[in-house]
Amino acid sequence: MNKTIIININGIIFHIEEEAYAVLQSYMMDVKRHFGHSVDSDEIVNDIENRIAEMLNERIHQHKAVITMQDVEEVCSQMGNVHDFAEGEEASMKEDEFQEHYYRHERALFRDPDDKWLGGVCSGLAHYFGVDTTWVRIALLVLFLFVGTGILLYIILWIVMPVARTRSEKMRMRGEPTNLQNFKKSFEEDMGDIKRNFTAAGNAISPGLKHSAKQAGKVIGHSARVIVKIIGIFVIALASIGFVVGVMALLAMLGFIGPVSWQSFLPTNFISPEYYVPFIFSCFVVVAVPLILLILLALRMLSTVKISKYFGFSMLIIWLIALFSIVYYGMTIGLDYAERGTYTEKITLAPDSVFHFSLNDLTTITHEMDSIEDQAPLNRRISNRKAHWKDIRAWIYINKIDSGMVPSAEKEYSAKGATIDIALRRAQEMHYSILQKGEHLIFDSHATILHNELDRDQHIRIKVNIPVGTTVKIDRSLQYYVGNLDFNECADRYPDLQKPEVIEWLMTASGLECRLAAPILPADSNQTAVTKDGIR
Amino acid sequence: MAVDNTQTQMRKGILEYCILSIISQDEIYASDILQELKKAKLLVVEGTLYPLLTRLKNNGLLSYTWKESSSGPPRKYYQITPEGTAILNQLDNTWEELIFAVNMAMEKRKNKPTSENPLTDQKEGNHE
Lengths: 536, 128
Description:
The complex is a heterodimer of chains A (536) and B (128). Chain A has 536 residues and is α/β, with parallel strands linked by helices. Chain A has helices spanning 18-35, 41-59, 69-79, 82-85, 91-102, 121-129, 133-145, 149-160, 167-173, 181-200, 207-253, 260-265, 276-302, 309-335, 364-373, 376-380, 420-428, 487-491, 523-535; strands at 4-9, 12-17, 66-67, 339-348, 354-360, 394-401, 408-417, 434-437, 440-444, 459-467, 471-475, 502-508, 511-514. In chain A, strands 8-9-5-11-12-13 form a 6-stranded mixed β-sheet. In chain A, strands 4-7-10-6 form a 4-stranded mixed β-sheet, with helices on one face. A 3-stranded mixed β-sheet of chain A has the order 1-2-3. Among the domains of chain A are: 1-86, no CATH class; 238-335; 342-364 and 389-535, no CATH class. The model of chain A is unreliable at 88-105, 177-187, 200-205, 366-387 and 523-536 (pLDDT under 50). Chain B starts with a helix and ends with a helix. In chain B, helix 1 packs across helix 4. In chain B, strand 2 and strand 3 (75-80) form a beta hairpin. Chain B is mainly alpha-helical. Chain B has 5 helices and 3 strands. The longest helix of chain B is centred in the C-terminal third of the chain and has 30 residues, at 82-111. Chains A and B meet through helix 2, helix 3 and helix 4 of A and helix 1 and helix 3 of B.
């Protein structure tokens, strides 16, 4: 059972076996190449083609409708090998040799089924570039080390490179016959255009000029092809790396690879889970489709790989759909940031003459691990115990109120939403706690929001109102959360060079003041201390 | 190798003459020309014929007409032009001269009993 194809030679239709066709085609290619440079090449080739058609026609009868390999081989041997043609044509000999030499570089990219580890891709490439297979394999193995680019490249090449099945394909793979005819033809067409333009301008063009132009064209064409190949390989390599990175990002975003904590680490919480997957996928498609097309395009430049028109169109449509969904979801997300809602909750504190501010660090676990593993962003997420708080960092402002008034704290939550109502609801759903235990006031480091709530630019601001005359001790860990105090200046007044764990302040009529008087020290020693802190 | 080359040169020289000669008899189709040449063991593959015919046509010695064929595509039938006939006559003369020359050159060798293949190769004749 053999696959047949239908061909048309000089107006006669033949059913021909695929393999036989390949042989016939390569034979005709040889013939064309042989006569390529003689003046009457077209006529001679036509005569030969005609005669082949006639001979094949003679072989078809009622009980035999298909041209087989045997037919083609017999016809070709009757017509004779191109090298025997030279017997009658001595003039074309030299030219033929020149051509043979010149076009030797022209090879087709095929996988080599006779020399393979996996799919014969490496050996095919080696044939194509005329190097030893070992080098290609080493190069590809090196590429494997770079995020597996080699694997992807190999798979793509495996898909797009046809396997060299027939003898003629294997010969083309090794660069024995050539098919630069198209390139030459297009170049000659260009030259023809130029010639016509010249003629139109009233200038006769000498055959010598045409000839030298042809020669120059060959040289230019050859070096241009080498450059194009190098560029093509670069494009393929870069696009493949981009593609691999894209795939990794997609898998990570969808939670297939990487530690679980990655997903909450990735800044994707502003995307609603309703359309999280399609949104991420659309982003991937928008990036990946051009990369795929780029790779295929470069491969087409390098070889005879063809991209079907339908493939290109469907890629374009998929890309546009993905782009539209990104725009749509993007607008949906953007509109959800339209309004800001602020909600304030006021609590009264039990009066005391001394308040000791300390921090309930929701990221405590992290900090301990930090010193060991230095993985702050990842480990911080481990503390998502109650809810998830992301980066809603508290800012504490300590304000003065008249003595005798009741100390209090105002928690000002704010968030954004499509409407003020939605924004307000989001603000109200945030949670922040201040715990009072006697003189101890314990502030959360971050506000929390419900686990299924989206990132909508949430903020938390705490205003602590302290009556004049109250002593305020503030833990060093909390000082980075207090927005309106200069700790450095006060810390420098402490005698030891180590930073004090607790700094004492006193609320006065003009605001908080450092409990320690400025030490009487030589100006320069004070200076160094400031510089030291300044560096930190 | 040298023998091959000489043979090729000799064949090449008379090939055109033979083709002209065959065509001069009647309007003829390319593959029929080939049949004749094969019969004469002068040509083995058809592919050689077409470039030659094209060259002769370009030199104005031949012309052709297309004729319908009962089986297959239309065929090119070649015929000789008056110019071709004139050339052919000249070649006839040349051929006569060549035959005379070769015969003269071989005359002495023919009488030598030691020679094993006296008549097949001109090169040997020249050599001795």
